[in-house]
Amino acid sequence: MRTIDRRTFSKIFTAGTAGAALPSPSAASTPLGPGTRTSFGKLRHINAGVLDIGYAQVGPADGPVVLLLHGWPYDIHSYVDVAPALAGGGHRVIVPYLRGHGATRFLSRSTFRNAQQAVIALDILALMDALRIEKAVLAGFDWGARTGDIVAALWPERCKALVSVSGYLITDRERNKAPLPPQAEWAWWYQYYFATERGELGLARYKHDFARLIWKNVSPTWHFDDATFERTAAAFDNPDWVPIVIHNYRWRLGLADGDPKLDHLEDRLAESPAITVPTVTLDGELDPFTPPGAGAAYRSRFTGPYTHRTLKGIGHNLPQEAPQAMAEAVTDATRL
Q: What angle do CA 246, 289, 125 make, to 5 degrees?
């Protein structure tokens, strides 16, 4: 699950054809509801950087590229309805498992199980390089939104357009030291749990129960069934899931070190760099992490073509709860 800038809270896709506009998804003419589909079919694998990345791909191989990035505690199934809708409109849609999740594996046992924000963005650039994708639309929520934000901010030449659920999620660890009001801190309870040895042991022992509790709390009107949850929960059985999750949250709070070789990137991110690429931001009205103000809290960080939408009755897992809105946001972002 993502961490937004604490101060803000308290005030609170083309493979070499960068100029091509995306056609409209089939979802635009045929209303698409959540749970319409259940599977991507056979996964693909490719070595990219330090990872063997498992990913789903749908749509024509020569179509303009969309990368859909999931969050925590979720997986690629957050886009099981969105991806086919975009593919039906002619897009090449790629949905990777992030490091520590599902079919993605580290190539070496000795690699540091690092989960700081910059390294996850570098994973996506490595994936694009391995697949020879020059430029893509990036769309994500939670960890995926932060990753998309970072790529768009630091490497805008690789990002045709951006869809970011909950807006600007780049973490500034220094600002993260500032306390929030009690009600806001309560929403982040699991971060403090993960800061303890008991929390790490608890996550390892009760990973499925833990994730199910989070799903219910942050998406109060999403009445998912057991089969839907279990399809995603299989991704938590990755041997690196717990270490990656724990490191991510401890790093955000300044309780774990990242890779010193990435300090220069984190220094740039700490300056809250502006995002200049065309962007659509989305908020779920019932997501407890949505900042107030209908996007006003982070509007200044998006300096290119921009639009914002708040989805009423929708919680944190916005792509799976409102797949049509997510698919439409992707195509609309390229037309800004």
A: 55
The pLDDT score that the predictor gives to residue 34 is 74
In single-letter form, the type of residue at position 50 comes to V
- Report, as an integer, the average pLDDT of 230-238: 98
What pLDDT was estimated at residue 137? 98
Residue type, 123: D
- Is pLDDT at 20 greater than 70 in this prediction? no
Residues 240-268: what's their mean pLDDT?
97
Which is nearest to 164 in space by CA: 136, 140, 137?
140
- Angstrom distance (rounded) from CA 14 to CA 134: 7
Query: Which one-letter amino acid corresponds to residue 268?
Result: R
Residues whose CB falls within 8 Å of the CB of residue 277, separated by 6 or more in sequence, listed in order? 152, 156, 159, 160, 161, 162, 304
Q: Cis peptide leading into 273, omega within 30 of 0?
A: no
Scored b (16 or more CB within 10 A) or e, 221-234 reads: ebebeeebbebbbe
Q: In the structure encoding, which two tokens stand for residue 326, read together?
A: 């997510």
